[in-house]
Amino acid sequence: MTRTLVDHHRPQRTGERGAPAAPAAGISPRARDWAEIQERMLVPLYEAVYERLEVREGTRLLALGCGSGLSLLMAATLGARVTGVDSDEELLALAGERLRAGRSEGRRLLPADRLTEAEEPEAAPYDVVTVFRPVGSVAGDTLSPVPALRAALPMARRGAPVVLAGWGPPERCAASGVLGVAGRLTDRLRKGTWRPAHRDDLEDVAARAGLRPDGSGRVACPFGYADLASAVRGMLSTGAFEGAVRATDRRQVEKEIAEALHPHLRKDGTVWLPNVFRYLIARVP
């Protein structure tokens, strides 16, 4: 099993009077924390999907919501030609750094509003489309991937697999209790609040996008952190707490996340949250 405990993370640099300095290249701490702390927790999911779909040399893969590019790098290492699309320009910049460092060939990165440019003239259609950003953590998020999926489907070959990922049952996800902090703090906003995953979230997305379900799987994705501070930063980087920060303030949110994480703090100071993620394979009609 892939080890997901974050042994080390880049410390926040300090400027004058100990204030955090701006990350290199104008990248925010949130984006860096996602790339350096949190995204690797999903490596077992990426591995399981790529093994099941036999991603290999020559596979043309389109990743919607590619984030900071770890899933792209792993596919490129297997020989795939990868295209990544994301609405977050900071994460795209980090994905570019990763792919350049990995010397990945045949890769493209595009903002979400330029998705239709992902198809090169006379290029072969995509063999695999992935949406690894977990569905089923924010109210209304079963709608968010649908427009991008509908735009992408004409670029994929008929019958190509489309992979959707989401949280498993709340009772099997220790992180659910931590994410629930966001729901409690945003009750008064009634908008963008966290909610537990529903059993048919992924099937709902597939149906709205006009896809045909064709199998599913579950993967253990434990969240492991070197210390409590890393765990708080990692959880904040998921984006699930943005509404909570607006409803209260960042310091209050950090305090309540730390309290929710405390039962998962081990004697050696590390934090460990067992989780299960679910993925659905659907087919392009």
Structure report:
It is a single chain. The protein is an alpha/beta fold and 285 residues long. It has ten helices and nine strands. The protein has helices at 29-38, 43-53, 70-77, 89-101, 146-152, 175-185, 201-209, 228-236, 242-247, 250-261, and strands spanning 60-64, 81-86, 108-111, 128-135, 161-167, 212-220, 223-225, 271-273, 276-283. α5 (146-152) links the parallel β4 (128-135) and β5 (161-167). α1 (29-38) crosses α8 (228-236), α2 packs parallel to α3 and α6 packs antiparallel against α10 (250-261). The longest helix is centred in the middle third of the chain and has 13 residues, at 89-101. The chain is globular. The two termini are 34 Å apart. The relative contact order is 0.16.
Number of DSSP helical runs? 10
Can you write the helix and strand succession as a string?
HHEHEHEEHEHHEEHHHEE
Query: From the helix content, strand content and strand pairing, which structural class follows?
Result: alpha/beta
Kindly, what is the distance between the CA atoms of the first and last residues, rounded to a whole number of angstroms?
34 Å
**What is the 3D form?**
globular
Helix percent band: 25-40%
pLDDT under 50 segments (min length 5)? 1-24
Query: What radius of gyration results from the CA coordinates?
Result: 19 Å
- How many beta-strand segments? 9
**Largest sheet geometry:** 7 strands, mixed
Mean pLDDT: 86
Q: Widest sheet: strand order?
A: 3-2-1-4-5-9-6
% residues in beta strands: 15-25%
